[in-house]
Structures are given as structure tokens and as C-alpha cells.
Here is the input.
Amino acid sequence: MSNPKNAIYAQSGGVTSVINASACGVIETARRHSTQIHKLYAAKNGILGVLGNELIDTSLESDADIAALKTTPGGAFGSCRYQLKDPTQNRAEYEKLFDIFKQHHIGYFFYNGGGDSQDTTFKIATIARELNYPLQCIGIPKTIDNDLPFTDNSPGFGSVAKYIAVSIKEVGFDIAAMAASSTKVFILEVMGRHAGWIAAASGLAATEKGDPPHIILFPEIAFNPDLFCARVKETVEKYGFCVVVAAEGIKNENGKYITEQGMTDAFGHQQLGGVAPLLAGLVKSKLGLKYHWAVSDYLQRSARHIASKVDVEQAYAVGVKAVELALAGETGVMPIIVRKNQTPYEWKIGTASLEKIANQEKKMPMDYISEDGFGITKACWDYIFPLIQGEDYPTYENGLPKYVKLKNICVGTSPA
Amino acid sequence: MSNPKNAIYAQSGGVTSVINASACGVIETARRHSTQIHKLYAAKNGILGVLGNELIDTSLESDADIAALKTTPGGAFGSCRYQLKDPTQNRAEYEKLFDIFKQHHIGYFFYNGGGDSQDTTFKIATIARELNYPLQCIGIPKTIDNDLPFTDNSPGFGSVAKYIAVSIKEVGFDIAAMAASSTKVFILEVMGRHAGWIAAASGLAATEKGDPPHIILFPEIAFNPDLFCARVKETVEKYGFCVVVAAEGIKNENGKYITEQGMTDAFGHQQLGGVAPLLAGLVKSKLGLKYHWAVSDYLQRSARHIASKVDVEQAYAVGVKAVELALAGETGVMPIIVRKNQTPYEWKIGTASLEKIANQEKKMPMDYISEDGFGITKACWDYIFPLIQGEDYPTYENGLPKYVKLKNICVGTSPA
Here is the structure.
């Protein structure tokens, strides 16, 4: 039997409150199979750390610290926004990658990210086959946007969904108390450039008719200022106040974002923000109602303190499964979450080919949005409901969650 | 012995995640003294409910529902932004108030609010004495702004402080992971018009040198764009990223708010917002760094899911004490929180005269702000630290906190 190969694990794209739970699943499972996986390296800052030969030796981290990843938000090894170009355009980059793989006897590559990142994983798997380089190349799903295809849901989404639903439920109690003589309209801007999954999750906060949120604005539905203002007015007249949740990516009827900040990220995505103050301005100028607005931004995706237990378990499970798939000789695949049963909710981990996943976006089904375009349907509620179940509190120390910072010692560097 | 009198309890000003814990303390204590307090009414929407003769009969609420107030955010009976005018200016309003008191045999009045509200409480106590109307008039402290004098801290502040410190700790893990190839500057706008208490609380998130937040902007310190940009640049160069927490009320060197939304509330306070995008614009135009920004707004003051246990206990305790003071024949006073010992933190409930409290604002001591104006000192850390201790999770049902909605049946109306 040949010497066991080494492995690389890397995190990519926007981090979440549970991507480290996937890292934990990968590392703990690799440790249990040390006869097959010798060293597990974590690339510093995603694929950039592979290209830059910055590989963290995870064997220098204690079992306790690795276990603590399960309750720590952010990306423990650093993430990146960097997409490998098409091999025909930048062959040199791939050659560098495989040089590093050879140099470190890498036989396993795990890439933890969203659609763009799985495109990278797929390209690497393809080149490995072309080069006859023996590599088990496995994608691990992650994205708060919930837009990965094939998987029933993406790890990371459930916790954001829970955070937004909890926040809207709470703020609803606040506005309800203030509305008689003060704030009547509250607007929360949530993430979601192309798909309204996160905005939709706010709908879970409503359990009785009239409960907030009263209006949800989806990127999928062209924003019409007149219809919006009419609905705000109607809601305030009916319930005394109006809670609005708006996805950052809402567009006008011409498909243009109603606001943009101008900068774009490495993938060419526009960096958005400022929908909430824009809507607030509309409420003020057209309706003269007192308003408040909030923008959750990164708070929503790092809020490990209110993570969904189901989400944490699934994030961990896809990490475990990724290693199991690699050890079973699979490549070019990604573990996915399969909904086995709706009530009671049961799930299992399946597998999908990266070829089919890369660069595909799962849109919200149109029958998840109510006919008036301002709310979610029962089908949507049924879909999201199981994903926000359960609490998985971190431990606290001195009033704050106890999150782990790893030593992160790169190969070839000496411990501090 | 004369028939027991009735009581009115009312909530005023911006609500908090723990003002209902004070309500719970009042109602549970009143129920234990039913020989002295016959009916406890809750005014609908604060003093407006007294003026409008909208009094909720709290005896129609179950013990379980009243107990659940301890874990429910918002204001269960409705609050208001309405300040009684000076008696010389609007005598009729006071006459109406005392007509209602007489009509309902009110012998006790409990007003739960901040500085403006305690001014109202004081005025009512004064007029009662003038009219020889027997009234035990007791203020109950509440404000996230922590600006009530005499009390060591105000119920409501500790939970916002915890929310902000936890959020900044979490988001710091996020940005740290992204900074190599993406967002380098993150800005969170927090509440605080005149005092930087909430912004200061973010400083608790830092436990090691270099931990976020790197820059705190206080209303007490004139904002200097050049110094700010220089510090952001320096921080990014040193740590790879920069987390900024800005109070909504930061002002330029002429004492003008650096941004305003134009509308004012009933007390003439300017309704602010938009400091975060303004700072982000500065970071972009002057430094060209990739940024993200968030605005917590009402989310921070309604986040009961991450309330401070100390805060909940103190909010409850001032409610209990208010009733005890009233039963002891006191009037024109407010229970206050007294810090008995720093380490270990010990507190007790004391009493202060409303005459001294009304319309006074407790400022941040200048020695709580570091010399460079961008951080907090050890003295500030020591002061806030005990106030964020302990978690007091609400119970969850179907993935969401189980908050109570009372029946809120007004006297003279029939149950639904």
C-alpha cells in the first residue's frame, strides 16, 4: 500500500455562521481516517492560499479547538473572492496549482463555497483528470443565498433565515408599541442580490394574520413605487403600523437595481446597499409617515449566537460526507442535502455532480411568492420552516460567545 | 380601613427588550398586595391612554401571560412619545388626567420611561400634591441610552450593550476571513443621539489587542474626517481590516450632526440615521477601500433573544421596588440601581427623587473615552462589563422565540 496522501481544505466566497461547522466535519473525519489522509492542510484565504503556497497545518490544532469550530462564525482559515479563469485563458494558474499539489503530495481537495466556488472545484477536477493527476476533488456546499442547485437547501441559509425571522418578530413587537404616537413604518434591508430567499424567510415571523412582516420585497418582482406606497398606506390604516423587509437586490421594471453603490466584487457582482434608506425616503415623501430603517448586512450572516440547529447539523454533515466521498474514490462531486420527509422533517446527505452544479443558480420558485408579490405562500413557508428549527447556542464567557481563533501555522513557517 | 385604591402602570418613550420585565415586576408585586392595590390598570400607549381613558384591565391576564412578559420585548401595553406640557401652559391636560384618576379611584401611578418620561412623572406628582389628591406617583427607569442620572445604569442598556458587543465580535470574525481579497472596512451604526454609551459597549467585544472594534465614534468627540480616514488606513495596514462602530449622533466640530433625516419626534429630537453610509462613502472616496455597512436601529433594542441576564433581573427588580415604594407611601421617587461592588459585581435597588432626575442627562464621563477619541478606557470597560453578563434565553416554539401578546381588554369594553 502506498503512503497516505495529504489533503487540502479551503473556504471560499462570503463566509457564514456555520461554514466552520463544515470545516469541523471535514477535519474531525479526516482525523479518524489518518491511515488514508496523512496531513490535512487548510489553504489560507481559499484558493489564493493554494496558489500562494500558504498551507495551514491543521494537525497543530487541538481536538478541542477543532470541535469549537462548530460554534464559531466567520471563516477560520480565511476565505476569498477569487474565481479561477477558464483553463484556456490562464493555464499557468492551473499549472501552479498542481505544482503545489504535487509538492505537498495532495490527493484530496475539498472546496467549501457557493456556486462560483463550485465552478472552481469543477475546473480543478477536470484538469486533474486531463493531467492524470490522482485527485479526489470534492465540493462542499455553502451559501446564505440558498441558490445552489440540486441540494434542497444550502448550509448557511437556515441560520440567516432564523436570524431574520427572529429579528422581524422582535422588531414587530417594538413598532407595535410605538406606532400610536411615533414610528409607523419600519424597513429592514436584507441580503439577496438575485434571489429573495432571505427576504422570504422573514415571512416565518408571522404566525397570525396581521403579524409583521406586512410587505416583503423580492428581487424576483419588479419594484413599483406606487403599488408599494399604496400597500404601506393600506397596512398602516389597517394595523396601525407596517413592517417592510426588502432584499438588497430589488430592481425596477427595467431590471435595474433600484440603488447601487458602484463597486463590484471579483466575480463582477455589484456591491449593493442602501435600499432601506431609499424606501424610507419614499415613505416620507409620498406618505409623510414616520419611519425607521435598519440594514443587517454582515450581521445576519455572522450571527452564530442565534444559528439554526438544523443548519449547524447539516453544515457539519456535508463536511463529514465530503471526506467519506473522497475516501470512497469519488471526485467532481458535492454532498447535497436531500429532504426525505416534510412532516416531521427528515433529511439525509446525497451526492450531485459538480458538472451540473457549477454556475447554476437556484431561483425562488414563483409559486413561493404570493400573487400580489408582497408575501410568501404556504409552499414557501413549508419549505423554509424546517430549516430554522432548533437553537444551538455557543458557550459564553464573560457575557460574550466563546469563539475559537486557531493558531493557523503555515507549513514551512515556525510556530510563533 | 378604606377600600383599596386602584393603580395605573404605563410605558413611555422608546421601548426596550426588557421594559416588559419591569411591567412583570410591577404586576406580579401588585397581585401579591391585592389588599392594598385592588385593580392594576395599564394605560394603553403610555400617558395618552390615561388622557384618552383607555385603561387595560390587567386582572384579565393570566399569571402565565404576565410571567411571560419577563421574556417578551417591545411594550406590551403600547408606549408613546408624548410629553406633558408645563402645567402653566396646559392646565386642562392635567385636569383631565386627574379626572380619570378620580373616576377610576387611582391611588398609585407608575410611569416606566426615560428622562423625558420622568419629567412627566414628576409633574404629575407635583400637581397631585398641589391638588391634595392622594397619589403615590413612582417613576420606573428605562432607557437604552443609559442617560438617566443617579441610577448606576438604566434597565434596557445592558441588553443593547450585549447585542452590540456580540454582533461586533461575530462580524469581526466575518471580516477577518474576507479581508484578504474582499471587504476591508466594516461600519456599524448604533443608536445614541447625545451619549456614546451604546457605541462604547461595542468595545467590550475586544479581548485581545487588534480585536474589533478598531474605531469607535462617539457623539462626545467632534468627528474629523481626516483623522478618521487616517486611522482607518493605519488599521487596515496593521491588521488587514478595520471595524468601525459609529453612534448615530456623531457631530462635526461645529456641533452639527454629520447627517440628519429631517424629521423630529414629539420631544423635538431629530430623527437620525444614515451615518454608516456616509462614513462608507468617505472610506470609498478617500481611501478606495472595499466596505460594507450595517445599521442596527430598532433591532438592537428589541433583541430579547440575546438580552443580558443582569439587565433582565434589574428591570424586573425596579418594577418590584416601584410597587413596594408606593405601598410604603412614597411619591415623586424612582427606584435606581446602585453598584454595591465591582468585582464580583453586586447591585441593589436604591431610591432617588424625581425632582433631581427630571430632564437631566447623564453623559459619558470623558475619562471613559481613550485619549485619541477612538476607543474606550479601562474605566469604561469596567463599568459596562458587569451589565452584559449572563444569558436569559426566551423559550422557543417552532424555531422562534415564544413572546406573549396580552389580551389588553380596556375597561368599559367587552372581551373579544
Summary: Residues 157-178 of chain A form the longest helix (22 residues). The radius of gyration of chain A is 22 Å. Chain A touches chain B through 82 residues (CB under 8 Å). Residues 261-272 of chain A have pLDDT under 50 and may be disordered.
